[in-house]
Design goal:
single chain; alpha/beta; Quinone Oxidoreductase, Chain A, domain 1; Rossmann fold; 13 helices; globular; binds nicotinamide-adenine-dinucleotide; binds zinc ion
């Protein structure tokens, strides 16, 4: 098969590699129909994630078709269309039993395209298949559910739920990339009073308005704290969601929160941020952190099925899976290309951006189920 292989900082290639095989009885082999690229993949390519070894296939978000299952897999069958979650769950450890799959200590957690081969590939081995994939509801396209692999549950769980968004709340979302925009989208499930989006890029703020922000602030040229105070009677936001991952934006969140408010950090931080306890110690502020657990995946799928949530506007560009390298160029230059999420399709359905019809490069026979 072919796959996108990481070859060390700055190096990647779409190349032929051996087909994955069942290694454990709880594994499944899934033919990838639709995949995408995440900001974390760019972090790996920059060399920020040393535990990802050269030779690893990247990617942790996909929809596919089961082509083979191990002997212990009982809840999915060959031919099933499944959403593969970015988080794998062993289903047995203390954390999985508490639905904290992101903390899985039994061999799961964020492993795809990180510590094991990932999903930007024609085929993938999915460990703990019973507890780590979700059937795609009938009638939904791959693109409608693809972003439930990662950005939707991340923004909803680590941002909106950890932040305890309640009806009427003023929610400030700092960073309007895919994660911040998904927080803006899913915060609306809780009927906030107003959503304020803060970013340095006007193009991202325009997207934020399309995704449901009521007010946008460009903190490169506007005083975000003063504007938020002005909008909240001098108190500050009820909830601040940090969706960037740099010290400035974390500190901004702790400065624009009201007494008794909640700061939900989603951003991945590479540097130390200052916690200003000298001003915060009397303010009853709650600060949460977390890796996504993806325990809201079934709920998000139900909301999409019922038409109450539509993540398809995240799909700004389409490519054939075989053109994944080109897709990285477009995704990596988001400031120029306006890319939010790129959709990589094994069988392009005729709406790829260049109008090209690309033949599938891999068309497996369904293999025997056990
Ligand atoms: P992104 O880089 O696409 O978007 C970040 C946005 O922040 C951009 O629009 C950028 O213009 C804006 N920005 C940068 N500096 C800023 C500043 N000083 N003030 C205001 N805005 C600023 O990233 P993304 O894919 O949306 O992800 C956001 C963060 O969430 C990243 O740190 C990512 O690694 C993290 N993340 C966390 C989890 C988790 O489980 N906790 C999962 C996935 C992603
Ligand atoms: Zn576990």
């Amino acid at each position: 098969m072919n796959a996108l292989v990481y070859h060390g900082p700055g190096q990647k290639a779409w190349e032929t590699v051996p087909d994955p095989t069942i290694l454990e009885p709880t594994d499944a082999i899934v033919k990838i129909d639709t995949s995408t690229i995440c900001g974390s993949d760019l972090h790996i390519l920059k060399g920020d994630v040393p535990e990802t070894k050269p030779g690893t296939i990247l990617g942790h978000e996909a929809v596919g078709t089961v082509v083979k299952i191990g002997k212990a897999v009982t809840t999915i069958a060959v031919g099933d269309r499944v959403l593969i979650s970015c988080i794998t769950s062993c289903g047995r450890c203390r954390f999985c039993k508490e639905a904290k799959y992101g903390l899985c200590s039994g061999g799961g957690g964020w492993i795809f395209g990180h510590t094991i081969d990932g999903l930007q590939a024609e085929l993938a081995r999915v460990p703990f298949a019973d507890t780590s994939v979700y059937p795609v509801p009938d009638g939904l396209t791959d693109e409608q559910v693809l972003f439930v692999s990662d950005i939707l549950p991340t923004a909803y769980e680590v941002g909106v739920l950890n932040g305890g968004v309640e009806p009427g709340d003023t929610v400030a979302v700092v960073g309007a990339g895919p994660i911040g925009l998904a927080a803006i989208m899913t915060a609306q499930l809780h009927t906030p009073g107003q959503i304020i989006a803060i970013d340095l890029a006007d193009a991202r703020l325009e997207k934020a308005r399309e995704f449901g922000a009521d007010v946008t602030i460009n903190n490169g040229r506007e005083d975000a704290i003063a504007i938020v105070m002005g909008l909240t009677g001098g108190l500050g936001a009820d909830v601040a969601i940090e969706a960037v991952g740099v010290p400035d934006t974390f500190e901004l969140c702790t400065a624009l929160i009201r007494p008794g408010g909640r700061v939900a950090n989603v951003g991945v931080h590479g540097k130390c941020a200052t916690l200003h306890l000298e001003t915060l110690w009397t303010r009853d502020v709650t600060i949460t952190t977390g890796l996504v657990d993806t325990n809201t995946t079934p709920k998000l799928l139900k909301l999409i099925e019922s038409g109450r949530l539509d993540p398809s506007p995240f799909a700004t560009h389409h490519f054939a899976l075989a053109d994944t390298v080109e897709a990285y160029d477009v995704f990596g230059a988001a400031a120029e290309t306006g890319a939010l999420k790129v959709v990589l399709e094994a069988h392009p359905v005729g709406h790829d951006d260049r109008g090209a019809t690309v033949a599938p490069t891999y068309a497996p026979e369904l293999v025997g189920s056990r």
